[in-house]
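Thread: quick sanity check before group meeting

JM: Hey all, I'm pulling together slides for Thursday and realized we never actually wrote out the predicted structure for the chain we discussed last week. Dropping the sequence here so it's in one place. If anyone has concerns about the input, flag it before I start.
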Amino acid sequence: MLVEGDSDRLALHAVAARHGRDLAAEGIDVVPMGGITNTRTFASHYGPRGLGVRLAGLYDAPEEAFVRGGLAAAGFPTALEPGGLQRLGFFTCTANLEDELIRALGTKAVEDVIEAAGEARSLQLLAGMPAQRGWTREALLHRFMGSQSGRKARYATLLVEALEPGQVPAPLAALLAWV
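JM (edit): ok, ran it. Output follows.
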């Protein structure tokens, strides 16, 4: 599975574990590409023009053009067709993974996770900054996740662990069902 970054990798492993799956034991690698603009490079290496591995992935809707173009250039022309990405096993997050998890849990549950992680004061300080005043709670929580190195990865796992059964965001569930 090709994913944008480490937080996506951790979230997929955490969701799989919650459903009794061990992706590594199943022979499934979740490969963070270090940014969606690297899709062509990774798809070329692993895909039909490289190792010939069956690929699937997760991407953010605003980055769809990079995914389509990268996959097509790497030997997956279906990526350019309507519905082609999903037929190839590539599933889209509406905005991004953090947005999916925040919407699935709701702001109160996300704030509870942040408090349990000992970072409620950091969130409160961020909310009080002039640039963030007037933001929606969702936007503030999203900004909080990306405001410190390593925080997205840390909260990817914590937020997945807070999900109730049936709350798994659709793109994560679809990708895991695909593989």
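AS: nice. Residues 1 and 148 are 26 Å apart (CA to CA). The first strand starts at residue 2 and ends at 3.
JM: adding both to the slides.
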